[in-house]
């Protein structure tokens, strides 16, 4: 097994967890994304990590962004591996490398500007009114922007946009 590259040095801490994986496939079997989009396979992500088959190109692979973070894989893993956390760390590493899909960048921008990823259409609002549903709460944009600033998301977004993604 090859050692993690310098690029993924900070990922070394998780390697002790990853090496507990014995490739049973339970993570993939329970993954709702895998059922619909077989190109994303949490078992294959873990396999690449176990084999040391990762480098900058591994992080360039956009498949990790398909993970919906439902944590079904982590919940069902018989070894107790928090696979969702491993994938989150891979996403964090991709952000540091400025390798974020345009759709994720657009969602980050929308959240920063409006507090939500998608505007609610007038037709939906009218349907809600006809059904006598309560008015939808407004996002607290100031709080959202403060949170994004405090977590470094604003800075990361700026750097990603400067890098041309």
What would you say this structure looks like, in words?
The chain is mainly alpha-helical and 165 residues long. The protein has two domains: 6-96, Fumarate Reductase Iron-sulfur Protein, Chain B, domain 2 (Orthogonal Bundle); 102-162, no CATH class. The protein is built from eleven helices and no strands. The chain has helices at 12-18, 26-30, 32-36, 42-51, 56-60, 72-76, 83-96, 102-114, 122-130, 141-150, 153-162. Helix 8 (102-114) crosses helix 10. It starts with 11 loop residues before the first helix and ends with a helix.
Estimated share of beta-strand residues? under 5%
Separation of the first and last Cα atoms: 33 Å
Mean pLDDT: 86
Looking at how many chains there are and whether they match, the oligomeric state comes to: single chain
Q: Major sheet, described briefly?
A: none
Keywords, separated by commas or semicolons:
165 residues; mainly alpha; Fumarate Reductase Iron-sulfur Protein, Chain B, domain 2; 2 domains; 11 helices; 0% strand; globular
